[in-house]
Amino acid sequence: MLAVRTQLGISPAYRIPRGASSTTTIQFRPSSTLDHVSAEKPRSFPTEGFPTIEPDQPLEEEQLFDYSPHRYYPAYIGEIFQGRYQVCAKLGWGSCSTTWLARDLRDKKYVALKVYIHNSVFHRELPFYKHIAPFMSSDHPGRECIRRFFDSFIVTGPDGKHIVLVQEPACISLFDFKQNIHENGFPEENVKSILEELLNALDFLHTECKAVHTDVHIGNLLACMDDSQNAKFKGIEETEINDPSARKQVSPDRTIYLSRAILPKEGPLKLSDFGEARIGPGPYDYPAMPMPYRAPEVTLEVPWSYPVDIWCVGLTACDLLGLDMLFRADHTAGNVYEAAHLAELIAVLGPPPTAFLELNPERAAQFWDEEGKWKDLVPIPEIGMLESLEGQLGLPLAFVKFMRRTLTWMPNERATAKELLEDPWLKG
């Protein structure tokens, strides 16, 4: 059984694999020196006295099916970037980057460093931030729900160059929050508050920035906190010194750390991860979106735009409430993977209207016959129509009506973010 480690002031933390020890001492290279006289001095972090993970236990990014250590920059706690950003703790990891909490020695604040993997194509996030910069002084409430960007630079590792984004520090994604705290979903009133902030963020992106996120889900929604005095993040740094994170030494120059989970009591929601965002309204005519979240027009290879984000709002609402995942898009379906996804859409939404199939008749003919009948490339699963959601977890019919405004075959029939902000269920 895996153990849950509770760290001082940060509860609960992520799981440590069996075999973690608190006695082994590991030495790693010392922190860099500052390039200039700073308002704050760098701190020394422990080189012993922390739990260690057994070499045969995959940890964090090592669990990815395509993990390669040479793609990840081997950052270490205590390291200083650009002569000003000292790494204090590891906050998270993903398929394209790792995220670290750092203290800005010059400006006396805490930031997040998102270090992209070597040769990553996901650094499109940088041009996105440059695009929206002129709009971040707007009085639109949605701008406060966008994760802020401060700086960027290049760092050279043993295997090449990595792009680093300096961003507003955040606490924990709603995916991790749900996995660790709210396994059965968030309370309905909390979900309404989350969706209101998400919709404000999307309305800001769509109407002012003219951008499409394309990757909206609970993993890209960050629970944050008001920490203007740096008290919480300073506590993280102190904890890292007094109770250092578990880690695994994989080579003399590479250490993999256990991420720290930071749980806010209250604070704003931030939409993040803009590596797949599209600048401009489009329409776009190439694949996008993870398959379980993929809007039907993308699967039908029809030009798409802002409505794909609204489609994801409906699916995000289900995730937050702890409802059964509507679309699973089973990868084992092989070459009928897309057909399996469309079959799930039919099960939940009902058959598509003729107008939808006419958006791309040639593509539609791969899945439907001339009369608009499903070709049964894969059987339509028994998932249940959207209306079956009524009564689940005590949810009202108003919620089903909200969902019907987000999950539609025809993209032009989906409500806009601004319209959904006035939805009776959301306002009730």
From TrEMBL:
One of its GO terms (cellular component) is nucleus. One of its GO terms (biological process) is regulation of mRNA processing. Keywords: ATP-binding, Kinase, Nucleotide-binding, Serine/threonine-protein kinase, Transferase. It catalyses: L-seryl-[protein] + ATP = O-phospho-L-seryl-[protein] + ADP + H(+); L-threonyl-[protein] + ATP = O-phospho-L-threonyl-[protein] + ADP + H(+). Its EC number is 2.7.11.1. It is an enzyme of class 2 (transferase). Residues 85-426 form the Protein kinase domain. It holds the Pfam family Pkinase. It comes from the Eukaryota. GO terms for molecular function: ATP binding; protein serine/threonine kinase activity. This is non-specific serine/threonine protein kinase. It comes from Penicillium cf. griseofulvum. The lineage of its organism: Eukaryota, Fungi, Dikarya, Ascomycota, Pezizomycotina.
